[in-house]
Amino acid sequence: MGMVVFNGRFYEFHKERIISRPGAPLDTRPGFEVGPEISRADAIRRLTLKGDVYTPAARDARSLATDAVPGRAAPEYEPRHVPRNPTASGRQDVYFPHYHPGGRHPNDDGGFGHVFYGERGEGPVSSDQ
Questions:
Q1: 115-117 and 52-55: which strand pairing?
Q2: What pTM value is reported for the model?
Q3: Residue 54: per-residue pLDDT
Q4: Which of 33, 65, 107, 125 could be joined to 115 by an S-S link, Cβ 3.0–4.6 Å?
Q5: Phi, psi torsion values for 29, nearest 5 degrees
Q6: Residue 94: other Cβ atoms inside 10 A
Q7: CA separation for the pair 80, 114 (Å, rounded)
Q8: What CA–CA distance (Å, rounded) separates 72 from 64?
Q9: At what angle do helices 58-68 and 40-48 cross, to 10 degrees?
Q10: What is the C-alpha to C-alpha distance for residues 40 and 53, in angstroms, rounded to an integer?
Q11: At residue 101, does pLDDT exceed 50?
Q12: What is the reported pLDDT for 25?
């Protein structure tokens, strides 16, 4: 991660960041996912719009995912994945563990964004590859 983040705070999360200048050909790069800090309210709003959020601590991720969908099913924990296709470097530890608020994935009808946490490659690997 290229920036300093703090427990108890929330950040925009972009699966790829656009690094090209306005008007230049589109150039995106993985590995710069964590964006600007946002409030808890903005984090919940972002999740309801199927946007992704990052926080460093697992307890904060679970709490946010729970509060994003009050009265619904508990958030679904999903361990990190391994890449479907090999990365240029051959690394397998490129994804973050995360929660799905209300147990709903972004592609589900009425789904939500992801709440990512921790370090890239942290924790066990998902068994449903």
A1: parallel
A2: 0.77
A3: 94
A4: 65
A5: -140, 135
A6: 15
A7: 12
A8: 13
A9: 60
A10: 10
A11: yes
A12: 76
